What does this fold into?
Amino acid sequence: MSVLLALFWVLSTAQAAGPMTTISQLTTDWQRARDYTKEYLDAMPEDGVNFKPTPEIRSFAEQMLHLANANYNFAAMASGKTNPFQGKKMEEMSELKTKAALTKAVLDSYDFVIDAVKGLTDAQLAENVKMGQREMTRELALAKAFEHQTHHRGQTTIYIRMKGVKPPNEKLF
It folds into this structure.
């Protein structure tokens, strides 16, 4: 039992000490994610932008626009910046489903996240924000956003392969 109490004390002390990452590291990671996602967008041929492997799932464009919409939502919530797409579902916006418009929309969402992160301080990362009924630190909200974009970009790997194109290599660093 004393081991559990010690572990709890260590974890609560670490959390009270502040965020586990820095604005500099977050900015670097989000820039890497932006560049990597651009490689995915560039890899998909124009005729594959609206490709669906099966009728029931999102098209490549819809996956990427869902990713972009979430980037805006998470970053706005974490930073307090106004979401320019508040209340809109980007994946349903037909004007964003050409390769050029899709690429711009998705990359703009990453720029929004990067600017939102740069507008915070390291200390602010430990502050709590509300996400629906949940309360979490700004740092955790941004981590969830990063996880989300990674997940949906990864889903599009099969779309690219099914169009006969080799997807970009992983970029962990």
